[in-house]
Amino acid sequence: MSSLPSSISVSILFFGAARGIAGASQLDFQLPAPATVATLKREILAKYPALERFGRSLLVARNCEYAGDDTTLEMNDEIAFFPPVSGGATNDEDDASSDATSSDFYELTTDAIDITNVARRVVPSVCGATVTLDGYVREHTRNHKRTLYLVYEAYEPMARRELRRIGSEARAKFDIAHVGIVHRTGRLEIGETSVCIAVAAPHRRAAFEACEWLIKELKRTVPIWKKEFYEDGSVWVEGEHAEADTTIIPR
Q1: Which of the listed residues 82, 117, 143 is the one where a domain comes to its end?
Q2: What is the distance in angstroms between the CA of the first residue and the CA of the last residue of the chain?
Q3: CATH of the domain at 74
Q4: How far apart are CA 138 and CA 122, in angstroms?
Q5: Is 44 in the same domain as 98?
Q6: What span, in angstroms and rounded, lies between the C-alpha atoms of 220 and 244?
C-alpha cells in the first residue's frame, strides 16, 4: 500500500503588478502535503511580503479557475497569483475559442481589431439588431495624466475560459441570439480598439442590456491587465474592483 506524499510541487504564475513584485513570471514551488490555497498563499506572502499591499484583492486561480482559500492543491497544479483585473482570434488556429454549436466567439489577438468584421459575424436572420461596443485607448486616465500608450497582458487560457463563461451566462440572462467578444493584447496606441463586444438579438433592448452586462463582467473577472505608460513612468492598473470582497469567487 503506497503512502501519501509528504509534499507536493506546484507551478506558480505571476501576472500584472504581482509579477513585478515577485521579479519572475513563473516559479516552481514545493510545500508540505496536504495543502490548500490558504497554505500556499501564506508561504508566498512570506516570500514576497510586498504582495501584502493587495490585501484581500490578491486573486488566486488553480488550473485556470478561480480558487478560494479552502481549495485543496494537488501535485503539479498550476497556480496563478494576480491583482484585480483591469478591465480576439489568435494567430494560431488551434487556439480559436469559437463556440462549436453556434456563431458565438471569444477571442484574444495581438492584431488590430476590425470592428465591422466583428459586428457582422453575429448577424443571423432571426435577429433584428446587433449592438457593438468599441472600447479604445484614451489619452487621459482617471488621474488626469497624459497616457502615451498601453500594454495589455492576459492569462490567456483562463481569459478565454472566462470569456466563454460570461458569454454563456449572458445568453441565459438575456433574450439574445449570439455573442462575440474580441480582446487585444500587447501594445496599443491612443485610439486603437482594445476590446470589441457584439451582441445580436431579436430586439434591440436585450442586445443593449446584454452588451452593458458583458463589459462589466469582463472587467470584473476576465484575467486581463493593462499597464499605462506616461512621459514620466508607467503603472499597472489594478482594476475597478481592487477593494471588492473576494467572496465573489470561486464559482
Answers
A1: 82
A2: 36
A3: 3.10.20.30
A4: 27
A5: no
A6: 10
245 within some domain: no
Q: What Rg value do the Cα atoms of the chain yield, rounded?
A: 20
Q: Are residues 112 and 226 in the same domain?
A: yes
* Residues 9-44 pLDDT 10s: 999 999 999 999 999 999 999 999 999 999 999 999
Q: Which uninterrupted H or E stretch holds 204?
A: helix 204-221
Residue that the C-alpha cell 476590425 belongs to: 114
What's the domain range around 213? 93-237
DSSP 156: H
6 contacts 75 by C-beta, under 8 angstroms: no
* E-only strand ranges, the chain: 7-14, 26-32, 59-62, 65-66, 78-82, 105-109, 129-136, 149-154, 178-184, 186-189, 193-201, 224-230, 233-237
Answer whether residue 133 is part of any domain.
yes
Asked if 184 and 193 count as a contact pair (C-beta separation under 8 A), the reply is yes
Of 33, 57, 82, the one marking the end of a domain is: 82
- For the stretch 84-121, pLDDT in tens is 886 533 333 334 444 434 579 999 999 999 999 999 88
Residues in the chain: 251
SS3 220: helix
